[in-house]
Amino acid sequence: MSTPILASSCARAATAEEARYRIDRPIGGRSARIIALDPAAADVVRRVAELPWGESRFFPDPAGFDPRDDLIDADVAIMVATAEAHAETASSIARACASRGIMTAGIVLGGRLEVGDAVAALRPYARNLMSTEDEDDVAAVLTALRA
Predict the structure, then answer these.
(1) pLDDT digits over 54-101, tens only?
(2) What is the pTM of this model?
(3) Residues 97-144: pLDDT tens digits?
(4) Residue 74 lies in a domain
(5) How many domains does the chain have?
(6) What DSSP string describes the chain?
(7) Could you tell me if residue 15 is inside a domain?
(8) 84 is in which domain, residue-wise?
(9) Is residue 1 part of a domain?
(10) CATH number of the domain that residue 85 is part of
């Protein structure tokens, strides 16, 4: 006994009315800014930057990041930190992003017992915050964001 194919289960079987909501062009990637907040995070950002990315830009040295110029056309700013991160840098990036309506996210690398202070420092400034021990998660997050 075969099961009938429902119109909603097949893209080709959509009605003309449903088809007008279909996206008929490629969905582009994001223009992300990935900023390291400390020297250990800078090493990770450099390694991740070597992978193929779209319009994303990487800043291993937060001193080389100029919010006035480097946030132009940005969709999201991702701060990468380790236990050595300082809240002042995260704060200045977050303020610049907030004034432009740019989402901020934070990825803190290290063991839970090591990164508690860094998580607390970033928590007020990152709309989304992830703590992980695996630096490959940085690339995975960027891939999920279509960076």
Answers:
(1) 889 999 998 899 988 999 999 999 999 999 887 888 999 999 999 999
(2) 0.79
(3) 999 999 999 999 999 889 999 999 899 989 899 999 999 999 999 999
(4) yes
(5) 1
(6) -PPPPPGGG-GGG--HHHHTTS--SPPP---EEEEE-SHHHHHHHHHHHTS--SS-EEESSGGG--HHHHTTT-SEEEEEE-TT--HHHHHHHHHHHHHHT-EEEEEEES-TTTSHHHHHHHTTT-SEEEEES-THHHHHHHHHTT-
(7) no
(8) 29-144
(9) no
(10) 3.40.50.1440
